[in-house]
Amino acid sequence: MDGGSSVYEKSIHLHQLVAGVKSILYSADTICLSPTHVLIAAGTVFGEVIVWSCFLEENARTNANAVGSIHHFFTGHEGSVFGVRISPEITSLPGRSTGRLLASCSDDRTVRLWDISDCERASRHDPSPYSTDGFELRSTGFGGVATDDALGMESCIASCFGHKARIWSVHFVPTKVGEQCKLSLLSRGEDATCIVWDLSWEPSGSNFGLSQVTSWNNHAGKHIWSLCMRSTAERTTVYTGGADGAVKSFELEFDEHYSVVLPNRNNCITASAGSGDSQARVDKSVKAFTYLTPNHFLTTSTRGEVQICWIGPGASADRIIHKETLFVEEDLRPFCAVSSLPEHGIALLGSAKGLIRAYNHNTKSVSVIRESGPRPLVLYALDYCRGSSSSLETLCFVTSHQEPGHLNLVIASVSEGIEPLVDSKTLALPYRFEVTSASLICDNRYLALGNTHGSLAIYRIASTESIQQPLWNRKVHSKEGISQIKSFSSLYGETGASLNYFLTCGRSGVYCIHELESQEDSCNPVAIQTIHRSNVTRTIDLEGAYIDKETQDLLLYGFHGKEFLLWNDTTQSEVARRSCGGAHRRWAFQPNQETGGGLFIWIQQNLNVLPIMGDANHTLRAGGHGREIKTMDTTQSIDRPLFATGAEDTIVRIFTPTNPEEERLWGAFKCLRVLKKHQVGLQNVRWSKHGNYLFTSGGNEEFIVWRVRSIPLFGLVTTAVQSINENIESDLRVTSFDVLEVDENEPDGGFLFCLVYSNSTLKIFHYSATVDGGHFTLLAGGNYTSNCLTEASFMLRGSSLGLLTASTDGYITFWDLTSVVRPYYTISSCLQLKQPIDSNSITPEVISCEHRYQTHSNSIKGLEVARISDAASLVIAVGDDNALTLSLLNTEFGHAEAGDAHTITIPDAHAACVTTTKILEQRQCPGTNRMQLIIASSGNDHRVKVWSVEVDMDKPGPDAIQMQGVVNRYSSVADISSVGLIREQSGETKLLICGVGMEIMHVKLP
Amino acid sequence: MGKSSKDKRDAYYRLAKEQNWRARSAFKLIQIDEQFDLFEHENPEKVTRVVDLCAAPGSWSQVLSRVLIKGESFGRRAWVEKKRKEEAALATAEGTTEAGNDDDDEDMKELKPRENVKIVSIDLQPMAPLEGITTLKADITHPSTIPLLLRALDPEAYDSTSSSPSTLRQPHPVDLVISDGAPDVTGLHDLDIYIQSQLLYAALNLALGVLRPGGKFVAKIFRGRDVDLLYAQLRTVFEKVSVAKPRSSRASSLEAFIVCEGFIPPAIHDGSMGMDALKNPLFGGVAVPTTASADGNVGVEVMDIDSEAKTEPVNLTTAKTISSPGPHKENQVRMLHADTNATSTQEPISQKPVTEKFALENRWIPPFIACGDLSSWDSDASYSLPPDHVSLDPVQPPTAPPYRRALELRKEKGGAYGKTKLGAMGRA
User: Where are the WD repeats (chain A) (predicted)?
Assistant: First the structure.
């Protein structure tokens, strides 16, 4: 500071020692080789890597005589160098020499390694190999230049491709110092991927080999922005931070050869041994398997053996599969169908002749349930309960029937020492119904069957009919089929038993929640409604779902190509991924609620077991959108505020604000649901007045109506009930829309929409919630000029309906819709339908704009309209020209003055484009003609401003508007697209800021 | 996005191909000229020597070539001629003048090549040559570019073997320095805005060394965080600074152009130009840090400026009221900052004590000027194309990306790399 004074207790002094080459550097790394020697590596924008030293004087305080010396100009990268890293000292370089390597990564998608061992030995007295101060005539920039000087003569020792986009940094994984000729590296990139590399060399000789070991893609959207490591003797934990705001970790372990072992990936176990075997071997005789407990599974072999297997303790490298033979049955040699209830320790084994045995793992006893029957091509264990007396057990399962097109529902009462009592019912399957999944649902009152084409059939358990036809049969998933049905009791345990909800998984990567309602109607005794439908954000052919007991997270598993994937849908992260040949192999997965992991077993040549550790891949902070948020809207649900965000990543998310102290995984924003249906980036999202509907619009002319509600245990459920997507080929954007409720007091009310498009057109739709489960009718359309429309706002005033639009030319346009909608609605303080709309008889009318006026010199980015009276509205607009404008618009429809406006322009409201504005509060001053408003504005200058406005209708012209700036705050959110107000129950007000990320700030409103 | 759908989505992309421009950005310079008369079409001798920084693929150089060397009519000249023609047509229709004056049409086609034109274009990327233009491949942020540029501007005067080229004075300064340079955006906003500002400072530092007094400087700017600090810096060396947004630049992008007119050589340069001025750059990260105390400390203590303590309401000052008979009755302009839009020259902020650098009074917002007719194409709108529309190939294939080899390799291995969105991202 001037005069050396400081406002802080201690002051920091910074001194410039030496300057290197002055050009824009994208990356650097420095290490202190000694107290007087600092080694610096830097990467330039045009692909050079400069390695230089700064030599300090010993014991000098100011180091006025520090000198710089350039050792290397490494050229070869064909793009900007985004990362350089100096290795720790390596004692086992070729020729048993000690030295250091330099790793670099670039826009050209390569990771390269360079030998910088000589830098260590340099001293301040050595002449610098390069004397350039950068002022010589020399060419810079891209493209190989043949230089006659020494620049560009040194080449890298290894180079490899791997990332699909730019590589931001490269790191050396710390390893134990040893004689190994091997190092591991990590890189992170724009492709949201982290790659593990292996660098090996021969002890003698000079060849280095760089190859990719594995890659990690566990962040949403683009970019891993940060990476750090924590190492112990056994393992390294790698932490990554993505553009999605998530912080995740994964583990790297090393075997005795210093090779990387990745938990939940390549730590699979193949060797097995029985109690008598002296040596473990790979077992190729296993045919079928099923779980008895989360840790034990039962296998059958080509030799007719039935064995219990489990994984022994020990280090991952020498763990084996332990086997214990239960019995050997000749009839199980050619064929054996298995099914089990791991939560009860019960397994069913069906032989080719239809003999069905039950194995009880608790008592290790086997009982024959059925002596003979059809070959059990279908066999699903459904339920098991221990009866009132300890010896009586009831076992329920479905299996094949003698008659094709039918199934046997078997309820067997087993009691020790007594012949099982078997009650067998016949179920008639719908035509060509190939069963892929079966489960009891709704407190075990119904049986649900899923098939290969996505249909669901429901039967009653307590039916007395001799042959029961399905009570309900409909397609609920796409043609890829239903892979799993789960009742809420099996998802949530006892608390879910009484609920009539159940979950289904579709192989197309969709899971649904359905609600079953019993009806009085004897023809349709049950009705099933799909209340939730979710597309998983990753490409997974879903096979199953479960809820983690401890965290209540929803976990999904299935296949992606030839890989098995365990996916935490709540935190949007991968738990495990393993190449296994694909879903057509024999496989089984069983979660372990105790450890948060599970066991995945499959046959690929032989039996393979992958123990999945719940904590190997950890989510420290669950993130949000992977790309910038384009739009956001808030609503107040019964118990908490909700807000929906739409982003460039084509995803809509629903969040609720939380207390960061309570929700460590989430911080200040808890994501309740991820909605994936849009094909391109979002443009606008809006809640209905009561928050039971959400409307979203985007590119490709997409407009979607979502139904949103809350159910016990699972929470928010969302379904896309209807969408406008008239032209799939279209690349028009629905840039904005506005909505009015129709018959809002009726349970089956609808909506009136105005959609505006990027080609300067607008469309007015009526939406009926009841017709065909949601139906749009085009009532009218209009054309502005050729400028892109950016905003729309209905104005319901008296018995008239108007519309305001804003556009990229800076104009606000006023459209009178009264005559267009009057045939259909009664217009008063709300809209009421005159009679049901028959969409076939309607010819859409053409509306034309009435008045327009310019408020901004370039695009209008945000528009809000406040009703001051039936005769006047305050129009708030913000734009690209840094300006905020307030116009008092005459809305006396039909009068000559309608459309007249007086405007206040604040040309320097922000320092850059103002992207959004929001009315936070509006109140009438009692007994006066004055209206007070609190409005917020924000934009690309990272400032959030709050303005207080008073409109006095007794004053003429622009003087009617008085305003003040009341809050001016910095937000770290870039590209702010939207602001919203959150009102806590305590009365506290918070502003929510969305853009590249989200922020909540406490703001006290005046 | 395919070629054809890009034609619909981006009117200027299509127009550029139809009018033989190397890139759509040509329209940005033309529309800025339309507003600011950069090329002084009525005093052609005033703008003949121009430096184009970050020129590749060369569309701005193309505009320079067609306006200055070939003498074609674009920008302001074309606009004036069009207006004159329209007025004439109107007058003809009203019968006030004789019909049959066809000269106007000829006027627009008339070539007015200028004399003694010197254009130097620099870019990191190799650029296809343009007749009459000296192209250099160099990094404008790198000091070695200075001697390259000086030699290119005045080959005779520049004696590279001279023992001290630092004493070189620029005998023939230039009239206009333009820069359309932007980094490949990374997606990390703070970094992108910082690099863009450093690129702008590098261009400005070069301009300071070669521009004649009264000369002009036009450069791309990202209107993001703290851009008002940047504006305030520029105001110290020019009489008039405006921020221009051509219609051809998307409203959805941060991009705008800073138009600086009336160069005032800073006093500390003491009239010296060329190497001397360039070796001690005034602006940006390359400027020698000013020491805060005698012991060479360059550290500055920055207070937390965003504390909630300051909650005084800010009043606005009424600047002017515009009345009109139309539906838009009155428009009253009220200012948040008193000196917005005012132009004044101060001592360069970089020379001020560092403690004042970030002060509020060093922030300034210049007038925002949208360029190009409202009737011109809207870069944010989608247009429908006639069914027989033939999508043209770009005039110049894009510069080979640095990851070209990676693309080829993936293709070889059967990867779908070329089809992923990642392939085209991040390159503005």
Answer: 74-124, 675-710
> Per the structure block, which two tokens stand in for A584?
């057509």
pLDDT digits (tens, 9 = 90+) for A877-933: 999 999 999 999 998 887 888 888 999 999 999 999 999 999 999 999 998 889 999
Question: Residue A984 half-sphere exposure, CB side, CA atoms within 13 Å?
Answer: 15
**Domain total in chain A:** 2
How far is the C-alpha of A643 from the C-alpha of A982, rounded, in Å? 9
Question: What predicted TM-score, i.e. pTM, was given to this entire model?
Answer: 0.92
Confidence check: pLDDT of A855 > 60: yes
Kindly state whether residue A103 falls inside one of the protein's structural domains. yes
A858-866 mean pLDDT = 96
Within 13 Å of residue B296, how many CA atoms lie on the same side as its CB?
9
Q: Nearest to residue A827, comparing CAs of A837, A817, A836?
A: A817
Q: Considering the domain boundaries, does residue A879 fall inside one?
A: yes
**Nearest CA distance, A538 vs chain B (angstrom):** 16
Name chain B contacts of A904, Cβ cutoff 8 Å: 331-332, 334
Backbone angles phi, psi at A882, to 5 degrees: 70, 0
In a domain, A243, yes or no: yes
Answer yes or no: B220 catalytic.
yes
Decide if A909 and B336 are in contact by the 8 Å CB cutoff.
Answer: yes
Flag whether B180 is marked binding: yes
Q: What are the pLDDT digits (tens) for B88-145?
A: 888 887 776 655 555 556 666 788 999 999 999 999 888 888 989 999 988 888 878 8
Domain CATH code at residue A82 = 2.130.10
Confidence of residue A830 (pLDDT cuts 50, 70, 90): confident
Residue A889 to residue A1002: CA distance in whole angstroms? 33
Residues in chain B: 428
3-class DSSP assignment, residue B283: coil
Domain that holds residue A928: 858-1006
How does pLDDT run across A121-165, given as a tens digit for each residue? 888 888 777 765 555 556 666 654 444 444 455 789 999 999 999
pLDDT of B274 over the 80 cut? no
Alpha helices in A453-550 (DSSP H): 488-492, 494-497
Nearest to B144 by CA among A74, A138, A69, A48: A138
A745 lies in some domain: no
Indicate yes or no: CB of B137 within 8 angstroms of CB of A141: yes
- Out of A261, A280, A311, pick the residue that ends a domain: A261
Domains of chain B: 3-72+111-281+366-371 (3.40.50.150)
B342 and chain A in contact, CB less than 8 A: no
- Choosing from A261, A288, A323, the residue where a domain stops is A261
What is the C-alpha to C-alpha distance for residues B136 and B124, in angstroms, rounded to an integer?
8
B192 labeled binding residue: no
3-state secondary structure of A76: coil
